[in-house]
Amino acid sequence: MSERRLLARKEVLNRLGGISNSTLNRMILRGAFPQGLQISQRRVGWPSHVVDEHIEGLAQAQAPIGEK
Asked: Where are the domains of the chain?
């Protein structure tokens, strides 16, 4: 397990495979990704364990390539 810390939006985008900022915003609006924590007026962060758990959930929900 990785250390627990807050991840900036840019790092979250990278951890999610390099998705765009717009895609992350749509995922949040649909409820497909948790909202971040307001750190300051202009800064939002996500706890690293929340992002890691979301990625693990995605991996478990997907069938391996070539299997259906």
From this structure: 6-61
Give the rounded distance of the alpha carbon of 26 from its chain centre.
Answer: 12
Amino acid (1-letter code) at residue 18: G
Ranges under pLDDT 70 in the chain: 1-2, 63-68
- In three state form, how does the secondary structure of the chain look? CCCCCEEEHHHHHHHCCCCCHHHHHHHHHHCCCCCCEEEECCEEEEEHHHHHHHHHHHHHHCCCCCCC
**CA distances (Å), origin 5, targets 26, 59, 65:** 24, 22, 32
